[in-house]
Amino acid sequence: MFMSRSEYDSGAKTFSPEGRLFQVEYAMEAIKLGTTAIGLKAVDGIVLAVEKPSASTLVIPTSTQKIEKISTHIGAAMSGMTADARSLVDRARIEAQNHYFTYDEPIKVRTLSQSISRMTLAFSDETSSNKYGSMSRPFGVAMLIGGIDGDVPKLYQLDPSGTFIEFKARSIGSAGASAETMFTDFYKDDITVKECLVEVFKILKQTIKSLTKDNVEVAIINKEKGYHMLSKDELNEYISNTKFI
């Protein structure tokens, strides 16, 4: 006796006869409705940028951050369901701290990305005994994880399927596809963080209706300063000084 489509839809771990996990596919679709997030790898660091939706003036800005610090040398930009992203960020921070206390060294970006990807697969219809606990559904969020391994910048994308892939440049979210088409116009292997910042603000200007210091977040990760979130004044300076085409 065959299961109906609705039964395949509701089972987070149930493959359809065509070999599809519908719940994971739905989670991937949710990301396409999320805010645009951009990650660029330069020779001297990583640039992360995220569109920040307009919110009430009564909302405290730090409570709606789309870029989060994982460790002194790693940051994460997110697109999709914020609550899911915060859950993964909290677990990633614990993973990074545990690694440092155990091995007396900073966790590598790939190691952390792999660890988070395992967390995204900890969904089940039953109570799970793994150390991450379990979710009744896949996480509805994708993340760009950027950081420095020694002297080498690294950038990874994670998605609800548990896949993590290393990129030179990547964009996710509602305008992710259009932003990526712009990468080919300027990206080169020896691009610097300063050059990336100029191009990022050009892209944001074209993907955000009215770009201001209040509707965007940008972070830089490099060897000298580690993780650094641009202040409102720094954002204003880049926005006013960047010539848009």
Automatic annotation (TrEMBL):
Keywords: Proteasome. SMART domains: Proteasome_A_N. GO terms for cellular component: proteasome core complex, alpha-subunit complex. Pfam families: Proteasome, Proteasome_A_N. Coiled coil: none annotated. It comes from the Eukaryota. Residues 8-30 form the Proteasome alpha-type subunits domain. GO terms for biological process: ubiquitin-dependent protein catabolic process. This is Proteasome alpha-type subunits domain-containing protein. Belongs to the peptidase T1A family. PANTHER family: PROTEASOME SUBUNIT ALPHA/BETA. The lineage of its organism: Eukaryota, Metazoa, Spiralia, Lophotrochozoa, Mesozoa. InterPro entries: Ntn_hydrolases_N, Proteasome_alpha, Proteasome_alpha-type, Proteasome_asu_N, Proteasome_sua/b.
